[in-house]
Write a structure and sequence with these properties.
4 helices; three-stranded antiparallel sheet; mainly alpha; single chain
Length: 127
Amino acid sequence: MDPISPLEQALHAARALVLADLIAGEVAQADVVSLVEDSVAQRRWWVEQWPDGADYVAGLVAQDVQDALLERYGRWPLCPVCGSGDPHALDVEPELGPNPHWVCPQAGVKVAAVGSLGRATGGMTSS
């Protein structure tokens, strides 16, 4: 069996992290999972062009899925930190960098690493 390339490892990890957050938010229906697959396919080309960007793929896939969900369904993931005011989505920071995390743009606090929303929201956790 051939070893898995660093590119494929990064793409599989990004897929798993974003799926864990979707599952934690109970929004991982088949059509939403398809959005993840579409993003991973597009980001595969991106990382093939810029291999040094492999560390950034998880944050980019999370942003891609967040954008696609906004267009189709509404804001995701909703902020679990702010208990009052209008519901608002978390942002991914850094926008282009390693170790992405979800941040509340209003309170300015880190909520969870991408892939760990379940721990922050009391939903299902990833292992």
